[in-house]
Design a protein that fits this description.
about 190 residues, mainly alpha
Amino acid sequence: MTPGPDMALVLRNGVAGGSRAAWWTGLGCCTGISVYAAASAVGLAAVLAASATAFALVKYVGAAYLVYLGATALLHARKGAVAAAPTGTPATAVDRTTAFRQGLMSNLLNPRIALIFLTLIPQFVSTGEPALATTAVLAAAFLGLAVLWWRLFSLAVGRLGRVLSRARMRTAVERLTGAVLVGLGLRVALAGR
């Protein structure tokens, strides 16, 4: 629930395409979380944490992806592509597949999600407990909360999108989230481990 790349992306897609676009972006984020949760449960996420090269690769590809998404948003805002179409649907509204893919890639290319599952979840597995089963239950709880959060957030963003239906407001949101995504991408690229 902390502000970051996922929230900026869901907000951007939700303002442009309503609660449905926000929801599918959030579901993509949750799918990325589930991939890392499964990898953590079977110990594969430890490889990412142990290998500086693998961590750096995911980090830089993820940073580049965030910068790409942000630059695309800024380009749309500059070209005026966020103006409402005759049907009232914004021209930059993303379809379900694109929204889902963006959310998924945002999470899969975020090595910090893997580190959450490596550092946070294992702290709750007691000695003598079956690690795989306990990790799976904790990961499922984490994922369940994420799904609930993204549903509530997508509904709120959908309402916000209706309030911000004017083209000038959408352009401002597109610029703001584009700048935030570029900034977050640069922050990820320049941050230490």
